[in-house]
Each structure stands twice: as structure tokens, then as C-alpha cells.
Amino acid sequence: MIFVLLLLTPLLAAATAALVKPYRAWVGWLCAALSFAPLGAALWLSARVLEGEVLTWGPGEFLRADGLSALLVLCVSFVAALAAWLGPGLAVEDGYDAAERRSYRVFSNLFAFTMLLAVTAHNVGVMWVAVEATTITSAMLIPLHITKASVEASWKYILIGSVGIALAFVGTVLAYFDFVNLAGEQASALNWTSLLHSAPVLHDEVLKLAFVFVLIGYGTKAGLAPMHTWLPDAHSESPSALSAMMSGVLLAVAIYAILRWKIVVDAAVGPAFTNRLLIALGLLSLAIAAFTLIGQRNYKRMLAYSSIEHTGLTCLGLALGPLGIFAAMLHLVNHTVTKSMMFLLAGRVQQRYRSTEIAEVPGLVRTMPVTAGFFAAGMFAIAGLPPFGLFISEFALVRAGFAAGRGWLMGVVLVLLVVAFIALVTHLNRMLYGDPPAPIPVGERQLWALAPAGLCVVILVILGLTLPSPVSRLLNKIVEIAAP
Amino acid sequence: MSGWLVEFFQIVFALALAPGLVGLIRWIKARLQSRLGAPPWQPYRELGKLFHKEAVVSKNASWIFRFAPYAVSASTLAIAFLVPVLVVPRRLDMVGDLFVVVYLLLLGTFWLALAGLDPGSAFGGMGSSREVTVAALAEPTTATAIFSLALGAGSTNLGAIVVAALNDPWTVLTPGHLLAFAALFIVAIAETGRLPVDNPSTHLELTMIHEAMILEYSGRYLALLEWASWLKLFVFLSLLANLFFPWGIATTLTPGALSWAIVTLLVKLALLAVVIAVMETRVAKLRLFRVPELLTASFVLALLAITSSFLLR
Amino acid sequence: MNSLFSQLAVLGSSLTLIFGLMLLWHRSVHAYTTAFAWQSVVLAGIVAVVAYFERDPELYFVAAMLLWLKAWFIPRLLRRMEEPLGAEQELQPYVNTATSLLISGLLVLFAYAVCRPLVALSHLPTRAGMPLALGLIFVSLFVIASRKKALTQVIGFLMLENGIALLAVLGTYGIPLVVEIGVFLDLLLGFMVMQLFVYRIHETFESIDVEQLGRLRH
User: Fold this and answer.
1) Where are the domains of chain B?
2) Overall average pLDDT of the C184-190 stretch
3) Of A249, A274, B78, B219, which has the maximum CB count within 10 A?
4) pLDDT at residue A362 greater than cutoff 90
5) Which domain holds residue C141?
6) Is C86 contained in some domain?
7) Nearest chain B Cα to C111, which residue?
8) Is A292's CB within 8 Å of C197's CB?
9) Structure letter (DSSP) for residue A238
């Protein structure tokens, strides 16, 4: 029942939007209302998982939700709801025509469906199919407004994304090859629980090779350097609601895939190999992002590079043992909430100022005071300041690093975080203060649209000041799964 | 004793048949182009005519010019000694193997290139530089392609390779063999100066390679050089035929086996002649800057052949 | 190892790799489409051979799907794109032809090196073709990275998928049917989206030269 509610409602919303021609406003409201269903299902699922259940559904346990899936389902449905309420088609002047709005409703719901399927699938092959489908559905939305820049961004996204995913499939095939070699062909061979169960018997070299391919493949989708080149373009040229979904949860889903494979490979060859690879790529992403943030001139690209930075941090955390995994998953949740809010706010700013250049959007405090307040809060959050949640998770990550004996590495990480902090705060300064250009109207409009942003800030502060018991219990469950 | 006699007979056989092979190719091409064409024994008449004519030598030519035809003929004749034509194994197999053959090919090319440069004419120098470009890319491919077969046979001795192929007929279908055949076929086209690499019947500056180098020659020198190039074609084609489709070649020295070997060789050569003639009629000459692309492709095929043979050993 | 089955499998794999090399050798989109169609025919043939020798009826279905989708349907769509877009030839790729061919030879050698543990571990008679499949994957990646026309990149991506399917067939006699069908759907949809994007690039930039897509920097 939970799974039906979770997966079928986005499909239903997409089908409605596809069938109703021409686009009517009530379709948008219906989709937005329907987006609460997966959110409710996700909360219900998490409650049952916290009681110790592992939910399955379908012939041969086609869908399976444990603690890790529950956390990600929560994140995905939350951001999908945000994007449904604040995306094109509901409010009035957002510059999109009827065909574009209809396209948005159809594909964003399909996008949400594929992401939810990816994190609840039991079979790594089906997970792969779903992740590839996320590439396709999100790529259709990037050039919602056809301009030279958005066409370029969408081409890079689909090409690099598809190639990366294909490499992840090579890794999947290699692992299946080893399993079949030892145990013969079975339909359930690709279920990740069967892979985990037989992991100690599988051959080291093959699994290591498979993990390399998987890391490169899903790492491309997660935005890990050096496969990150599509990310700034795609996230800055797409409509802000889509950027929120992509930056917020698509990266999280890719990291989920990497973590599932890490669990299997670690059971066979021990954690040292995967940790080394994750540290290398994570550190590289963090470094590239931190230094590129300094010279940024476009605030949406700035947010995209910040996503790369945080993805790098999360992967670093995954490599630092059980404490690190706890910190990384907490960081994942915090980043999801923050980044989606930031992109939606950036969308509002872009609508008002009609530009994405930092130099052309000064004086936010005067033109849109409430938005500016939330924007500043979000920027401080992603820069890692207290009292927001990201500070706690970064602190926990560094502490885990020292506990794992990687003191020098944490030193480098801290330096890079400071670099990023300086860059972000400088850009924020330029955007908040100064005189706004003359023709920009002053004063906040559509205050109700800021309510979700307020909700996000409240969540961040709660996560920053205390760690509510359900959250910490869920995270502990995840650590049990990931590092037994 | 009879072994040596048969060796000698093979050489005479090759020398005698080489002009006929080229004549056959020309005749088939002519018929395909709806012309009557000269009869297949026309090259013999050409040789006869050339030997009777006076050799005119430029005043600027040095001893290289007069020596080169003998050097080229000698090296090509030496190759003919080392390649399995009618009989395997051979007495002369102990003298040279695959690498000696490749060196001898390069020796002939070297002397021909020098001869093109020697009289100081523009065409000659141009032909020499083009020929050396082609040779630089074709020689490694020859060595690599035949070496892939040698890996399977366990010896670089050409006779041993043929015997190994006779013993295990299924090896013909292995990808190593097929890739090596493709690579060697392209190289044979390049080395013997056939279309699409070089047009053997043109004297246009834009298109000639081999003809440019022998442009200054006349009389008996020209006869020797033409005969050497025809012998080279004969040797390459019989190498292709015997390395990859060795059935019919004689393994004993009985008259029955020898005559059967002669018949099968003639059939194989005729088939190859038809293939070459059809290909020359269908394909246009490649532009010169695209020839390295073709040869690099054949080198990659030979490389793939070696890796396939290596893994399937 | 030298049975007819393994010979046919390795022969087929070599043919698919050579068709992949055609992308580096020829210049026109028409030649690329033909090479891809024939490569898919050979791939379907290999799957059918495996189905015959292993008496697995599911694989016949997979071979038929491969044949329909990759040897008929997608090449048909590609040929329709040749009209408006195919006049552009790959005249000056980022890496020239001779160097590309040499690099691809080296990539195949690298694939052999990477595949050694796999070939050593497997008991299947088709295992000798796995390095060739991985070689095709690497060569396709190189094609995508070094060519300038968007259409060549799309065909390179399709060949990459062929290489992965070949690896799956040779190493594991095919993946579970559910996943196989999902992969086909993904491929079809992915290709249609790419096709749509190539048309959009052509409309917006008046050419499909990827070098033009250089506005977004840092």
C-alpha cells in the first residue's frame, strides 16, 4: 500500500498532465496536491522502518525499503513536493507558456517517479534502469526555454550523463558476471541482498574492477570531479524548480547508488580499497569546487559548484568509517534541504532582476527583503556556519576523520572549506547590499511562495541545534547497514 | 638431391609465371572495362622487346643507377627462394624466415628509392619519397601480420607456419587469421603498387609512385626492374594463398603431389588475380594523404590479429 | 576452447570491433550509420548463436529485439537525420585519422590487459571475446571524446551500448530478462531524446558542430 501511494501518484500526476490538452491551471494545482501523497507515504514508511521493519513489495521482493531507502525516499518526496508547489504553472507571471508548463508537469513527475523507483528497487539492474531514466526525464526539462546556452547545457548533460551511466552498467555486468560464474544464472542474482550475501565468495579483482566502473559511472551523475563538467551548465540553465530537484536529490540518489555498491564490495575486499577511491575523488571535487567558487560571476553556477563541493564532502565522509557514514548521511539530508531552497530562491531573484549575473543583482535587501533574508540564511548554511545543520554535519565529518586517523586529510579539507566560505560570503555581500538598478520594482510579492523556504530554514535550524531522536535513530540504522 | 632440384624448379616456375600473372590481371581488367585488351602473354613480349633495346643512361647518373636494377632483381629473387610456393618444408627454410623476408623487401625498396633519386630528375625524387612513406608504414604491418600467424604455429619459419595451418584446418576461421589476412592483403596492394595505393599503368605526376622511380630506365635495366616488380606481385600473392589457404601444397616430393601443387597454386593465383582485377576496376585511387590512413588501419588490424592469436594460444 | 562455438563467438566479437573502428576511419554520417547497423546485425547473430548452443529460448527473443531495435529502427531514424544534417562530414576531428586508429589499437591492448583476470576466472567458451567487447567500449568512448559532430557522438554512444550488450552476452549469457527489457526501453528513449536535441542544436546553431557549444565557461 505504501509503495503504491509512493510510486503511483507521481505517475498519475504525469499521466493527467500529459492527457489534458491544452494545459489548464487546475492540472498544476492537482499535481501540487498529489505531491503530498508520496511525502505522506515516505513519512509512513520511515515510521515503520524505525520500528525495525524492512518493507518489501512485489514478486521476488521487487521493491525493498530499509533505513537507507527510507531516508532517501523522504528527501526525494520532500523536494518533489517543493518543486511541484513552486514550479512553473501555478503562480502567475513566471514567463512560461502553456506548452512549457505542461511539459514541466509531465516530466518533473516522471523524474520524481524514476528517482523514487531507483531508491526502492531491490535489483541493482532495475536501479540502473531507473537512474538512466532520471537522466532522460530531467534532460527533457533543461531546455524548457530554448536558448543557445540551454541547448548547449542539455546536450552536455545527456551525453556525459548517458556515457557515465553506461559505464556504471559495465560495472553492474562485471559483478553479475562474477556471481554467475560462481552460482549459476538466477533471476535474483542482481538483487543487492543476494550480492551482499555471496560477497565474501566473489573474486576480489573482478569486484574491484566493477567498483571502479560503478564509481566513475554513478560519480558522473553525482557530480564528482573529474566527471563534473556537465553540472554547472545543467544546473544553471534549467528552470529553478528543476535545478532544485537535480541539485537537491538527484545527486543524493547517485550517492545512494554508490553507497549500495560500496556495501557489497566492502563485504568482499574490505573497506580500504573503496575508501581510497572515494577519498581521492571526494577531495578532488572539493578542491576544484572551492577554487572555482572564487571567480564565479553567475550565482546559479555558484550554487552548482557548491553542490559539487558538498558531494565531494559526502563522498569523503563515506570513506571515514561508521562515524563518517553517519556524518555523510546527515550532511546529505542537510544539503538536500538547503540546496533546494536556495535554487527556488534564486529562481525568484532571477524572475525579478531578469539576470543571473552576480554583478547585476545588487541590493537584494532593498528590493526583496524577506527573500534576501532567507537567501542569506541559506548561503550561511552552505558555507557551513552555525546554527545551521550543515555546520553540525561538517563538524561530525571532521571529527570522524580524526577518529579514523586521517588528520592531515582533515586539515586540507578544513582549508578548502575556509576557501569556499570566503568565496561564498563575498558573493553574498555583493548581492545583498548596494543600489539596485533603477527599473527593478521594489517590494516583496507573493509572500505565500516563501512559506516553504521558511519551513526549510526551520528544519535546518532544528537539525543544527539538536538532532531529533527519529533522525538519529534512522541514521544509526543506516550505519548498521553500511558498516556492519 | 631431388630436394634441391625442386627448389630450383620453384624459382624457375615463379620467374616464368610472374609476367603471365600480371598479363592475366591486365586482361581481366580490360574485359571488365569492355575493352578487348592485350592477350595475357603480352608482358612476355614486352620483356623480349626491352631486352633487345639499347639502355640509355643519363649523364648525371652514377654507378647506383646501373647497379640498382641488379640489386632489386637479386633481392626479389632471394625472396622468391624463401617463400613457400610449391613445396613445404623446404631445404632453404633454414636459411631465412619471416624477418629475413621483411629485410629483403626493404632492401629492394631502398635500392629502388636510391635509383629514383640518382639521375636527379624531379619525378624520380618525388616517386622515391612517396615510396618510402608507403614502405615505412607497410613493412611493420607485414611483419606484425605474419608474426601473428607465427605465434599460432610456434615458429617464424614460413614453411613451418604453412605446415601448422595444414595440420589444423580450423585455424583459418580464427579471428587472428582473418584479421591477418585482411592486413596482409592491404599491404600486398601497397607493396606491389596496385590500386588504390598506386596505379601501375599511369604516368601522371599526380598519381605515380613506382612508375616515377623507374621513369628514367630503358632497355635491359627496365626489363629487369619490371620483371622484379612482377615477381614481387607473384611472391606476395602466393604468400597470401599459401599462408592462409594452404590446401594442395605438396608436402612430399612425389611427381603426383608436385603436379597437384602446381594445379592448385595456379587456381589460387587465378582467383586472387580476379579479385585484384575486380577491385582495381571498382575502387578509385586514394588521394596520397589518405594512403597513410589506409596503412595505419591495416597496421591496427595486424595488431588486433596479434592480440587475438596471443590470447587464443 | 577451440570449439566451433568459441570460434564463432570470437569471430563475431572481432567483427563488431572492426565495425566500431569504422567510426574512426570513415568521414560521412552515412558510413557511420551503415557500420552501426551491420554491427548490430552481428551482435544479434552472436546472441542467437549463444541461444542455439546453450538452448536458451529467452535469448532468441533478446536477439530478435536487438535486431528490430538496433539494426532496423534506430538506423532508420538515423537515415532520416542524414537529409538535413548529414551533409556535414567529420573533416577535422580533434584527433586526426591515423593517430585515432593508432590510439584505438592501444586502447584494445589496454582492454586485453584489464580483462586478464576476468578471462582467467571464467569457464564459459565465449570468454575469449570479452576483451574485444571491452575494447569496443573503450574505442566508443574515444570516439565520443574526439569527434566534433554531435551526430557522430550519438552514434559513438550507440556503439558503446552495443559493446556493453556484447560484454554481457559473452560473459554471462545475457542478463535477466526484466533488466534487459528495461535497458532496451532506456536505450530507445535515450536515443530519441538525443535525436531531438541534435535537431535542436541544428536549429539553434545552424550546424551540429560541437565546437560551437562553447559559451558556458566557468
Assistant:
1) 2-311
2) 86
3) A249
4) no
5) 4-210
6) yes
7) B307
8) no
9) S
> How far is the alpha carbon of C130 from chain B, nearest alpha carbon, in Å?
11
Q: Do C114 and A187 touch (CB under 8 A)?
A: no
Contacts by C151-154, CB closer than 8 A, 24 or more apart: C151/C29, C151/C32, C151/C78, C151/C81, C151/C85, C151/C86, C151/C198, C151/C208, C152/C23, C152/C29, C152/C32, C152/C90, C153/A159, C153/C210, C154/C191, C154/C194, C154/C195, C154/C198
Compute the nearest-CA separation of A452 from chain C (Å).
31
Tell me the CA distances in angstroms from B47 to A17, B221, B228, B243, C66, one per residue in order.
85, 11, 11, 30, 59
User: Distance, in angstroms, between C68 CA and closest chain B CA?
Assistant: 27
Alpha-helical segments (H) within A59-123: 67-86, 98-120
Half-sphere exposure of A298 (CA within 13 A, CB side): 16
Whether residue C216 is contained in a domain is answered as no
Distances in Å between the alpha carbon of C198 and those of B152, B313, C88, C149? 47, 46, 13, 10
Nearest chain C residue to A156, by CA: C213
C132 CA to chain B: closest CA distance, Å?
A: 9
Identify the three-state secondary structure at position A225.
coil
What pTM was computed for the model? 0.85
Name the most confidently modeled range: A55-59, A435-439, B289-293. B289-293
Query: What's the sign of the alpha-carbon dihedral A247, A250, A256, A259?
Result: negative
- Asked if the structure places residue C134 within a domain, the reply is yes
Q: What is the pLDDT of residues C7-25, one digit of tens each?
A: 888 888 988 999 999 888 8
User: Shortest Cα distance from B283 to chain C (angstroms)?
Assistant: 15
Is A129 in Cβ contact with C183 (below 8 Å)? Answer: yes
Neighbours of A414 (CB within 10 A): 13
pLDDT digits (tens, 9 = 90+) for A303-358: 999 999 999 999 999 998 888 999 999 999 999 999 999 998 888 888 888 888 88
Residues of B in contact with C131 (CB under 8 A): 307, 311
Contacts of C177-185 spanning 24+ positions with Cβ under 8 A: C177/C58, C177/C61, C177/C62, C178/A123, C178/A125, C178/A126, C178/A187, C179/A123, C179/A125, C179/A126, C179/A128, C179/A129, C179/A190, C180/C62, C180/C65, C182/A125, C182/A126, C182/A129, C183/A125, C183/A129, C183/A169, C184/C65, C184/C69, C185/A129
Closest alpha carbon within chain C to A125: C179
Which chain C residues have a beta carbon less than 8 Å from that of A140?
Answer: 193
Interface-testing mutation among C13, C16, C18, with chain B (most B C-beta atoms within 10 A): C18
What is the complex's ipTM, to 2 decimals? 0.90
| pLDDT for the residue numbered C217 | 64
For chain C, helix (H) and strand (E) counts, in that order, are 8, 0
Task: Report the Cα–Cα distance between both ends of chain B, in Å, rounded.
Answer: 37
Q: Is B189 in contact with B297 (CB distance < 8 Å)?
A: no
Q: Cβ separation of C105 and B179 shorter than 8 Å?
A: no
pLDDT attached to residue A287: 93
Q: Which residues pair with A63 in a beta bridge?
A: A57, A121
Cβ-nearest to A133 among C161, C175, C186: C186
Partner-chain contact A136 C186, CB within 8 Å? yes
Out of C121, C173, C179, closest to residue A190 by CB: C179
Establish if A140 touches chain C: CB-CB under 8 angstroms.
Answer: yes
Q: What are the residues whose beta carbons fall under 8 Å from the beta carbon of A207, sequence distance 6 or more?
A: A175, A178, A199, A264, A265, A268, A269
Cα separation of C178 and C164, whole Å?
17
Q: Which pLDDT value is given to residue B41?
A: 92
The total domain count for chain C is 1
- pLDDT tens sequence across C152-171: 899 999 999 999 999 988 88
Residues of C in contact with B311 (CB under 8 A): 112, 119, 128, 131
